[in-house]
Amino acid sequence: MEISALSLYETLVPFLLYLLLVLMAISIILKLLPMPRVLINFIWTVTILASAYYLFNKFF
Predict the structure, then answer these.
(1) Do residues 22 and 47 make contact, with C-beta atoms less than 8 angstroms apart?
(2) Where are the bilayer-spanning segments (predicted)?
(3) 1: pLDDT strictly greater than 60
(4) Residue ranges making up the domain that contains 51
(5) SS3 (DSSP) at 31
(6) How is the chain split among helix, strand and coil, in percent rounded to 5?
(7) Is 30 exposed, middle or buried (0-12, 13-18, 19+ CB in 10 A)?
(8) Torsions phi, psi of 4, nearest 5?
(9) pTM of the predicted structure, to 2 decimals
(10) What digits encode the pLDDT tens for the residues 21-43?
(11) 55 contacts 15 by C-beta, under 8 angstroms
């Protein structure tokens, strides 16, 4: 399967905007709720892994 620049752009830009929105929401929520540092790191790790999994499935 060949990946064209336009399809990459059409997929990546909305995804990155969505990811930015999600990361901003998570950081606001984490600031409001008192949580241990381990839990905060776990939430960030899960978010990043889920994003990588989504991108990998989208293109390969």
Answers:
(1) yes
(2) 12-33, 38-56
(3) no
(4) 5-59
(5) helix
(6) 85, 0, 15
(7) middle
(8) -85, 160
(9) 0.49
(10) 888 888 888 788 777 888 878 88
(11) yes
For residue 35, which amino acid is it?
Answer: M
Q: Report pLDDT for 28.
A: 83
DSSP class of 4: -
- HSE on the CB side for 24, CA within 13 Å? 6
Instruction: Name the one residue in this structure whose structure tokens are 């830009």.
Output: 13
What are the distances in angstroms from CA 3 to CA 7, 10, 51, 60?
7, 11, 19, 10
12 band by pLDDT with thresholds 50, 70 and 90: confident
Tally of domains in the chain: 1
